[in-house]
Amino acid sequence: MREVFDEEFLGAENFLNTATYGLPSRRQTEALHAALRRWELGELGGPEFDASVAQAREAFARLVNMPAESVAMGGSASALIGLVAAAIPDGTRVATVPGEFASVTGPFAVQANRGVMVTELPLGELEARAGDFDLVAVSVVQSADGRMLDLDALRTSVEGRSTFVLLDVTQAAGWLELDLHWADAVVGAVYKWMLSPRGTAWMAVSSPLADHLVPHAANWYSSADAWSNTYAFPTNLAPDARRFDTSPAWFTVLGAGIAMPWLASLDMAAVEEHCVGLANQVRQAVGMVPSNSAIVALDVVDAAARLEAAGIRAAVRAGRVRVGFHLYNTAADAETLIRALGVDERCPRGR
């Protein structure tokens, strides 16, 4: 058991797989167990989860520095991105990067029959040429290997242009200090670095873009007063981004309402320094150049087998072992990983 800022994490030792899913705190699991017990006894009430929804919405807004009233709740990042993809005009030119996570690119790729064109540009070129496109859809941190988008360069490139910017923060929010108030849409699933159960995502959307979106999943919960409008027709939609909400996944939002406000209360610059520092400890040991990412993709012979033998939990993505360091990780985890890899078999420097 590890204690981090008054939260306890049971399985944190040698857990380097937060880029796949994050660990819940003991406080979160106790709350979930209690809710499951009330469900079993038939004592559960739907309105009791509304506070968790509000708390998680506000926390996401703080983590990305967007207004809480601009934040909508959905079941997945791709479902929320789909609202944007469905609203763009025929012939829209979209830019992304090669190897981008399919939930970011898929909603736009399936619009090809309307003449929507998706162009892949390498990181660096994407930021430089972003203003030449109608919309940019890209992750702040790449899922496969942790490569970072140059946010300052992207912002400069689109300044004064009509380009819409959609940023996915699924692999960033929760460990990386973010100020994305300038973006048109910021979307993130919460079950990774935001340490919540799987089944909910959030999207902050600027007013100019929100005016173009259709709430295709309009439902009782997206109304101005959910519990008073369950049978209203036509639906009395909320005036803010809540009009894009889907009905909450109860146990997911319960966990998110605990984990996300806790993360949002922390000094995110210090969190980032901790996570990146551990990642760079590993990079240095295996001969890689330093980076500003908490995710490391390892080019080491038999890395997956070595980590499994050492009891280290990680993942294989795009042919390489991927590890990630979060708040509940320590230098001891990095040292265990380094020993398991064997520093005599180093990755090519500067791959």
Automatic annotation (TrEMBL):
SUPFAM superfamilies: PLP-dependent transferases (SSF53383). It holds the Pfam family Aminotran_5. One of its GO terms (molecular function) is transaminase activity. Residues 48-290 form the Aminotransferase class V domain. Keywords: Aminotransferase, Transferase. This is Aminotransferase class V-fold PLP-dependent enzyme. It comes from Brevibacterium daeguense.
